[in-house]
Amino acid sequence: MFQYGLRYIPSKDDGNVYRTVRIENIPPTVTLKDILPAVSAEIFLARLANTIPITGSQTALITFVWQCDAVRFSQTSKAGIKFGHEVAKVVPVNTPTYPISAELKRLIFKEGYTRCLCVANLRETLKSEIRRVMEKSSYSHDIEKIEDGLVLGETYIRFHSIKVSAAAYELLKNHRCFTQCDFKFLKKDRDTRGTGSEERNFRTKVQESHTRIGIWD
């Protein structure tokens, strides 16, 4: 029904190409903040489209880091996702997903970047400053949630994409208020509700130099 622009046609040797699912019949009042907690595994990018004039409801496109997670989510959500009295339908997108850029691949697979950024070693007086800085930034519309972490002195910032999370990390680590903070990225299955975080730590100090189609069957 919907066209997503130019189509990516993978070669026969390409893998990990069917990474996107579509969630249909989402009520008008529902936002990504309501949707994403119901999505398992690591999300690369989440978008919510206003398709109300066309279908009478909203539509979400969820792109995963891994194709196997898109397949698994589609299979485990066959009964749909309930939002109030409405049940949204999860549909696999059978056109190939555009590949992740080389730089983002490096950040994700080598450096451990995810869409959940944890700011640690944060004084209580600076928690409101984190929120203020993020809400004034160009990334404010791509924030799912800002919340306290499981450990004292931690704040979790969840974004709609890993790309925005990476950009926000650069913004915060270079901000004068947060030079004594630690930064780490948390995995979806081991973040605020896990027993222990699978994380990549990034220590930032003032004196440090900053270097720089049958798969659904």
TrEMBL record:
Domain of life: Eukaryota
Region (Disordered): 191-217
Composition bias, Basic and acidic residues: 191-211
Protein name: RRM domain-containing protein
Organism: Petromyces alliaceus (Aspergillus alliaceus)
